[in-house]
Amino acid sequence: MMTITTLRRVTAAALALAAGLACAQQAVPLPPPQTDQGRPLMQALRERKSSREFAPGALPPQVLSNLLWAAYGVNRPASGGRTAPSARDRQAIDVYLTTAEGLYRYDAKTHTLQPLLGRDIRALTGTQDYVKTAPVNLVYVADFSRMESEMSETDKKIAASADAGFIGQNVYLYCASERLATVVRGSIDEAALAKAMGLKPQQRIVLSQSVGYPKP
After folding, report:
1. The whole model's pTM is what?
2. Which stretches of the chain score pLDDT less than 70?
């Protein structure tokens, strides 16, 4: 549980990042991920759970960097391999990030945030009340155009669901390791969210996941 002093420091750091994101016209670089941090895997598995209550403090830049890298970052630069597997290595899932400042897409290859929309659309990322105020809502979007043309629509949906599930579990384990709160969600008005995000017809929303500090 965070102290008031820690929460103030976290909030200040997050506000600094938010200011940069709000005025950015180009990609926003994230700090290098800290891959030597966190609790051991077996402890994280023991602590893994869903939480639906979040403290108001935003995530600071380093935590955001670590979170996104854990979710679907590049862990083998020579081959472009990711921290989560994907069907036939098509890497058809994109991770989007919604905060109070706007909408961004995580570019794993450059480990940057691509600003897309300068308004708060968190309320559209799910039907639950808490999504409106959760500091971060991740949205996992499958691009069917990256999959083999001979795959049926059903097979593409199955592959996309599996791929998003792997990413979501990575987020769960990172959050358990760092004592963050998270919950993955499938209850979404997909048409409304896709419109707000400006998605193309071949892009399909698979899941959303809320992340933040646990409510004291």
Report:
1. 0.88
2. 1-25
